[in-house]
Every structure is written in structure tokens, then in C-alpha cells.
Amino acid sequence: MADFKQKAIHRCQCEPCRAHPYSRVAQDHQAINRVVSCLDEKSRRRVVGLLASRQKRGGIESLHQISGLSRTTIRRGRAEVHRADRSPRVRGVGAGRKAVEKNDPPS
Prior knowledge:
Layout: H1 15-19, H2 24-37, H3 41-54, H4 59-67, H5 71-83, H6 100-103
Helix pairs in contact: 3-4, 3-5
């Protein structure tokens, strides 16, 4: 069983959420952030990219404020959704931390 660290839930910084934190819009943005916080980085990127592509104009900026993800990450996720890459890997080969055994070889 894999241990996943759950990402902290981002608080939306858009004007409607700040002005009316209990409105329908704010509830929708909170729901998006709850779902996004449970995903791995690849899925998070793709879901937010898909949501950004569904908006006519200003989708990247809007989802940047809602999710807290960077604009380049959202653009990349949007491109991945349209490209339909089926790679099972989350990170590229060699990316991420080195294995503990490589960092601290036995004495």
C-alpha cells in the first residue's frame, strides 16, 4: 500500500471568494481544491488544465487563482490533455530524489 502525502487544500484568492466566502462560486472553488489536493502531480496538472481549457477566455489565470498552481503548470496540463499522452509515469526517468541507498551507502 502506497503512502501518499495529501497536499494542503489551497484557499482560492479570486475576488468573488474573498468578497462572499459562502457563495455558490466559493463552494465550487473549494470543491475543486479538495479534489485537486488528493491527486498526484500529473493528475493535478491534467485536471486543472482540462478545467482551464473549458473556459472561453482567461481560463489559465482563473484556475491559477483558484488552485494556486503556476500558469506554466496549467498550460502544460492543458497541452497534455489535448495530446492524450498515456504514459504511466508521473515523473521523468531520473527525476525526483535519489534512493536512500544511493545517498547513504552502507559502511
